[in-house]
Specification:
The chain is an alpha/beta fold. It has ten helices and 16 strands. The chain folds into three domains: about 60 residues, Winged helix-like DNA-binding domain superfamily/Winged helix DNA-binding domain (Arc Repressor Mutant, subunit A, Orthogonal Bundle), CATH 1.10.10.10; about 120 residues, ATPase, nucleotide binding domain (Nucleotidyltransferase, domain 5); about 150 residues, Nucleotidyltransferase, domain 5, CATH 3.30.420. Helix 2 packs across helix 3 and helix 6 crosses helix 10. The chain is globular, with a radius of gyration of 22 Å.
């Protein structure tokens, strides 16, 4: 479930249509094509949307006058007819913020209207109380706003990614025990009131998957499963470029596929314990990727313990969802993810000399801060796509 607060939806920089819509449905159809393809021609838009040529021409003129779209000097080939002028989104038309509330840190990112990550910061914290998180988040938002010269009137809203699962249809979450104050409260209302922004919330794994689909290698696949390897293990699912939420918002709880008495959960806390036992001091999991040695003593032990878990989850995802790709991300070091991928075995029946098509298994393209980057995509997805 994505929870939306409409009470302060947008200020003077934007005007709303019906309900929570910033654009008419037909305008969103056009914006959606341009967003996912980066730059297109009018002919391509007509082909993808099936909207009549005269209507597309009129809407493109209107959206260009509103500075939503930009007509470039670049000419792109068309399957039929002459090359056409390239049309792209105006990245400065609007911005969105993303906030991640992790077990021992928060991070904030800002994204422009084209889906580019402008800036992101992470702050590790020993006190994850509501008051402390809000205070720190406010400082990070102010810092980024000033450094990046973001016009507050152009901010669409804020997405939030947090560790936990939705416990009912009311949008409240049963958070990790290290986030005790955040459990079973109206987080959307809390964040929205504090920042005076429309607010949405997802769990951390689903949020990271949303970000991978916009700012990572997930953009190359319309259907993928994202394995979120962090302090805990979870994930998210993207289908036809849309984030799959399920009934309550808990789709992608991949860790629940692994009975703890039978399978070791492939998380980075287990890795830290094994490395420490082998005399390897590990910094924060958020800095692991900066200087991680896959040949360190203890790495092979971790891989041995968790490889069956990766095999089972990948096989289940392949069989159930028939995804194009399985993406390993979160805060796992890229070199370690590559080692896991090289050994992952996805089971499939062998019939008449062939297996059914299997998903590619690839490393995430988001280098750092996947949850807040994913959270920053949510306002754009909800209001514009």
């Amino acid at each position: 479930m994505i929870s939306l607060n409409n009470s302060k939806l947008l200020r003077s920089g934007f005007s709303l249509g019906k309900g929570d819509k910033l654009f008419q449905d037909i305008e969103r159809d056009i914006i959606r094509v341009v967003f996912w393809e980066k730059m297109v021609t009018q002919s391509r838009i007509i082909s993808e949307t099936k909207i009549p040529q005269q209507t597309v021409s009129r809407l493109l003129k209107s959206l260009t006058q509103q500075h939503v779209l930009i007509q470039t000097d670049t000419f792109l080939p068309n399957l039929k007819g002459k090359p056409g002028a390239g049309i792209k989104l105006n990245p400065e038309y609007a911005y969105s913020f993303g906030l991640s509330i992790l077990l021992d840190a928060i991070s904030v990112a800002v994204m422009d209207f084209s889906g580019n990550v402008i800036e992101a910061h992470l702050e590790e914290m020993s006190d994850m109380s509501i008051a402390n998180v809000l205070s720190c988040a406010e400082k990070l938002v102010a810092k980024i706003t000033k450094e990046c010269n973001i016009n507050p009137e152009k901010v669409l809203g804020m997405g939030v990614g947090i560790s936990g699962f939705f416990s009912s249809m009311d949008g409240k979450m049963n958070t990790h025990h290290m986030l005790e104050e955040w459990s079973q409260i109206d987080i959307v209302e809390l964040i929205s009131s504090h920042f005076s922004l429309p607010t949405w919330i997802l769990n951390d794994g689903t949020s990271a998957a949303a970000g991978e689909g916009v700012a990572g290698v997930g953009r190359n696949y319309k259907n993928f499963v994202y394995l979120f390897v962090s302090s805990a293990f979870g994930g998210g699912i993207v289908n036809k470029s849309e984030v799959l939420l399920g009934t309550y918002g808990n789709a992608g709880e991949l860790g629940d596929m692994l009975p703890p008495k039978l399978y070791a959960h492939p998380n980075l806390e287990l890795l830290k314990r094994i490395l420490k036992k082998n005399g390897v001091e590990v910094p924060s999991i958020y800095e692991m990727n900066d200087d991680f040695d896959v040949d360190s003593p203890g790495v092979e032990e971790w891989v041995f313990k968790v490889q069956d878990s990766f095999d089972l989850v990948a096989t289940c995802c392949s069989a159930l969802l028939d995804a194009e790709a399985i993406i390993i991300g979160g805060h796992i070091p890229k070199a370690l993810a590559q080692k896991v991928i090289a050994r992952t075995d996805v089971y499939a029946q062998f019939r008449r000399g062939a297996k059914r098509p299997l998903p590619k298994i690839v490393v995430s393209g988001v280098e750092k801060y996947p949850v807040c980057i994913g959270a920053a995509t949510i306002p754009i997805r909800q209001l514009c796509l």
